[in-house]
Amino acid sequence: MMRNNIGISTGCYYPQLTEDIIKNIAETGVSVIELFINTHSEMSDGYIKELLKKTGHYGLRIGSVHPFSSFAESYLFFSNYPRRFQDGLEIYDRIFEVCNMLDAKIVNFHGMRSDFNVSLEQYCERYSVLFERAKNSGVIFSQENVRQHVCGNLEYIKKFSSFLGDDVAFTFDVKQSHMMGYDPIEFVEVVADKLCLVHLNDFDEERSCLLPGEGVFDINKFINKLNFSGYSGDYIIEVYSQNYSDEADIKKSVNYTKSIVEECLL
């Protein structure tokens, strides 16, 4: 029987310092987190060592990493300036090293903004370079469906996935799909066979991002769809701090999500 773990992104607590919210996360009852690396100094050996002491103390596994450099990926990897691309590769080689130190298996990639003029073939070629470097480091380089980026577009991501075949992995974010105007359940079908991570959230007619259980999204149907496709990865609750009024709401959402996952496995 598949076992999906429910986790929390440290981004839910931003801008609190990451090391200060590890205990809070553990108290929600999850066993896995996605780590937002929010600045360069949080990739230092000393910082990572101290962070691992805290996560280890509370029995938390770091399953995935979200680099602070996501905002710059368009410029690092999809401009026409070759030296910037090479320097970008070195920056991400360090991120892959950090993943190994944290024993995190996935690094998320936003990729290129939609207003950049790079062909699909060029995009795939440059993604492939990063994918292989990550793979050689024992890390999965996972493309996320982020709005205002090319892979937020369903038709683009179909072509991207087809072009790369088996040499691609996906992180699916419910809110990003919804904000692009897509049905998340229909969108996830396109990437389900190459899916390694899910960012789970909810929404309603007025609010585009809510904690699971606070909106109208059919999470039961969504998880059943992924179970049918064979997905056995983590469900990481990822919202923004303005999307809830009290941290107790997060624990309530964790319990709700766990109950849905367990019900879907029966």
Question: Runs with pLDDT <50, length 5+?
Answer: none
Quote the distance from N terminus to C terminus: 10 Å
Query: What pattern of helices and strands is seen along the backbone?
Result: EHEHEHHEHEHEHHEHEH
Give the amount of beta strand, in percent. Answer: 5-15%
Task: Summarize the helices and strands and which ones pair or pack.
Elements: E1 6-9, H1 22-26, E2 32-36, H2 45-57, E3 61-66, H3 73-77, H4 82-102, E4 106-109, H5 120-136, E5 140-144, H6 154-164, E6 169-173, H7 174-179, H8 184-191, E7 195-200, H9 219-229, E8 234-237, H10 248-265
Parallel strand pairs: 1-2, 1-8, 2-3, 3-4, 4-5, 5-6, 6-7, 7-8
Q: Can you describe what's shown?
A:
The chain is an alpha/beta fold and 266 residues long. 43% of the residues lie in helices and 15% in strands. It has 10 helices and 8 strands. Strands 1-2-3-4-5-6-7-8 form an 8-stranded parallel barrel, surrounded by 4 helices. Helix 9 (219-229) crosses helix 10. The chain is globular, with a radius of gyration of 18 Å. The termini are close together. The model has no long low-confidence stretch (mean pLDDT 96).
